[in-house]
Specification:
The chain is an all-beta fold. Helices cover 0% and strands 54% of the residues. The protein has one domain (12-135). The chain has strands spanning 12-16, 21-27, 31-34, 37-43, 47-50, 55-57, 60-67, 70-72, 75-83, 88-90, 93-94, 98-100, 105-112, 128-135. An eight-stranded parallel β-barrel has the order 4-6-8-10-13-11-9-7.
Length: 136
Amino acid sequence: MMFKGGETKGDLNGFLDAGSHMQGELHFEDTFRVDGRLTGKVVSSGDLIVGERGEVDGESEVGRVFVSGTLKGTVRATTRIEIAAGGRLLGDIQTPTLIIEEGAFYEGRCTMEPAKTAQDQSGPGVVTQLPVSRER
């Protein structure tokens, strides 16, 4: 599974398979895939992949997230959020780039800011808030 905008960051650090449930706080470096159920907080500058059978419920602070399963909760992505056909994201999000494929479902509030570069770290960016609910 690849992001539309390019390759994933690196090697898969971990995998939560279908039939498994984890509760707590997850930290990883490059890429983590969830095909089981994860309840809690996810923190990483890397990529979170929620597979077709995957469920994530809680707060996520990641570099990128790709959803083809179900993600519920607040999501902050520094690079992008992608929701594939059949994927469901329910919650408020903050990201510079949002991609919703036809057949995906998103319900929540979206705040979009330009991606920050090293030069932009000194001040706030322009913020646009869009309430979105889309299902096809």
